[in-house]
Protein 1
Amino acid sequence: MEQRSAVDDRLFPAALDLARQKGLINSDRMPDAEHSYSTKSSFVLRDDDSEMIARVPLRAVRRLADQRQTLLVSILTEMEDNLGPSPSKDAQRSYLRKQSKEKRAVVWAISSGRRLPQGEPFTRRKLLITLLLLLLGVIPGLVYGVFQLYRANMYAQNFTGLVARWRRAGSPLPFEDLFALTRS
């Protein structure tokens, strides 16, 4: 029998996200955080009847959890800059309600284990690299530029999909203890 360890509150949403990305979860059986657990090399997602739904590599789950944590911490840092240190839960919720729908959708996705868009938009840095490559050689610059524009377009489509899923879910705010998770 596998040795159960305590479920890290950051790992379950990341494992859920990773399992959804890999197509391992179908809508009729949803994993339960209380029955899911991590082993030395994997994270096991189980439903409320303790039946295994999926097993995902722990290293990939931790990497995804770190990415999600970094994104959430950047949002929290911005919140603290505007509200001051240790804002009340009401102040946090009020602040989130005033944010853009994209930012609220990202916070919702982090808190509920929903899939986050991978990648990043076309930035000035990528534009500069494209221009430098164009100066060095037309073909490498064109290949790099087209590839980066394609990736940025895919990111924008995935981000639009995230906002649409958030709206279909009723535009919920994240669960109450989301912000406490980042402090530990």
Protein 2
Amino acid sequence: MRNQVSKKVALTIIAALCICLALVGCSKNQGNESSNQDSNNSEQVASTEAASSSSDQKSSISDADAQKNIVVNVESAQKGESAAFITNNNSCTVDELKVTVTFYDASNQIIDLDSDGHDMLLPGATVVSRIDTPDSFDHLQTSVEVKVSDHPSYKNHSDQVDIKCSPIKNGAAVTITNNSDVKIEEIEYDVLYYKNDQLVYISYPQDVLNVDAGATVQEKDSIYSSISYDRCDIYLNQAHTFGHEQ
């Protein structure tokens, strides 16, 4: 009889211990789930705050004010063209930009003019436009039009792309590396050629499509005229995704 009572007591104690252990395990799991939820919530809040900050930065500047912070410098080449170097000195991306260069004679009469456009110009970035130029002119004037918020789904990844050129016969060898983690849908570059530090030729803009994340591609920029040059510079005008599925 005593043995039976002892067995019952032992079984009761073991059952109680099992229940306690199960409750402790549930408590730990709930704690981990709560911790993971807090971490995920923190990441979502940080992401939302970053997006909000960027949006607030854009909404705080008007197109007219952004236009004042665009600098354009024009350098003429030897073959009836010029390069317009356009720098965005704003602290936000300029979604749309149009530059116009007007050429005048000594009597201040317009001889000719040419325009070009860029989009998603990053803060501090410089892009280049090839401008058709009369053989002779007295002076020129530049003007720009900008829109700060015009392409909400576009994104420029130029700051995550390495690009370089080296002069070869009849052009330049161009190497482009996409260091971002997305496929870039359209890359545009322009090559400028110099002789003794004098600009002699500006290529037409070249497009490279669908460059995979981490990929390196090589291109040739060709010159179809007898121009002597000893070095080249390259400008990355854009490296865009357009909000499509990657």
Protein 3
Amino acid sequence: MGRVGRTLALAWAVIAIAGLGCSGPKAAPQDAAPQDAGAMDTAAPSDAFTAAMIPAGGHSCRITNTGNAIWTQGWETVCTVTAADNPPLTAAQKQAADAACTFYLGAMVVADCPPRENVIAFCPVGAAAGGAGTKTWDLIYKSSVTPDVEALAMGAGRGCPYTYDLNGREIPKYRCMGSAAALVNGVMKTFNVNVNCGYKSDGTRSRYTFNGDTISSDRLGLLVLKTGALVTLDTTDPFGATAAFYLGADGGGGFANSQMRITATTFLDRGAGLVATFTLGTSDTAQGGAPATVTDGMIDIRVGPAP
């Protein structure tokens, strides 16, 4: 992939996972029955594992985002609960959970999580923080960017691969629909393969993210920001993700802020639609890549339930 690819892939990994979150294979809420992932229905079957069944006590680790990280990652407060299969936690299990808590920026061990009436969702952590004989859950708290479970479906929230509402129903991830196209070194290319996009808002700022490939695996990434009535390519990501990039066999890299332009004809709230034209200019070759010129671009996407 080369230095350009590694650098941009690392920056965009932050956007793709939207936080450090849960990892590993899918973990069922507990011994819950299979859930219907095709609806936002909050009515749970009688044998579902619900948020109310996550035990208090045990070990609690509160993780708090600050500043721009809140809305770009899509969450403000998460509290990780670790409990022993046979309570209480042993000294070794507690020590392991303490160590896991220090891994996260803004994290601290607390006597108990914040009041649970402010929790909107939870996710089971694939690798329990306390090690063998323990279970761990992330409690996701309501905030400006996570006012409801729909915000989680659109891409907000911790980076858990599987998230559940309070009643134990899996919250299905909304699908990215649409594509982008642009002239690259004078050749029209369509980015409609492996399309990944999301939408987040804190009520003041809103942002669509887009990442898509051509059939020949050329890749385009865009961060489209709206502040008030102004739509721009977002050059202010707190984790250093570039506002736009192109990577292909014909060159690529990031682009100078002074070259990039975008004009949105449609920018709808809650993922309902982005339609815009853009030009990125000629890519920066400082990281060793061949230059690529991207012009006459068009993007038309939305984030919503699968049809």
Protein 4
Amino acid sequence: MSVHQKNKKKKSNTIIGVLILLIGISAVVLLMGYSYNQSRHYLSMFTKEKKSLAQPLYDRVMTLSDNTAYPANPDDVMDVYNAAYLLLYGDMILDEKLVDAVLKQQRKLFSTELLASNPYDTQMTELKRSLAYLTQMGVHVTAMEKKSALFEEDDRTKCSVRVTQTTSIFKQYYWLYSLKKDATDHRWKIVSWQATDENFNPMSV
């Protein structure tokens, strides 16, 4: 190989190296720009103090789809439900449109019977009334902790999940959720819930 050819090859390799470097820098800049825009986007959606908590909850809830990414088991169903509950009642949301979006996602976890007995408009009205009251009292939900699902011995398509709800004034409430596996799409759906005592025994009416 002549000296001229060697210099030409060296120059070509240098140009390729520079191009690769420029592409790498551009990718980093684009990624940083995307991250910055995403951060600003979340800031407009959630309170500044709760953004770091709200963001992963929101991402978890909004990935729920009718066709894909549906929770595989009762515990996962309740994880998504609780994430939505914290977003709605945790004093996190700034954009009121998000309340509508999160509630609609949460309702995808409901059985057909529960959807029929708990219409969207009715639930939204009650939700707004509850939020207004909690805001007036200066109280919000800080945690939703579940215990693993308990399956019925004679019917493994039904189970219950116990949830402890904690508020900002350190008061706790206890709930028992009933779930069943849908006979049509074989997905676990929430059928009902009821208030209980601290041992998860149903409260007498």
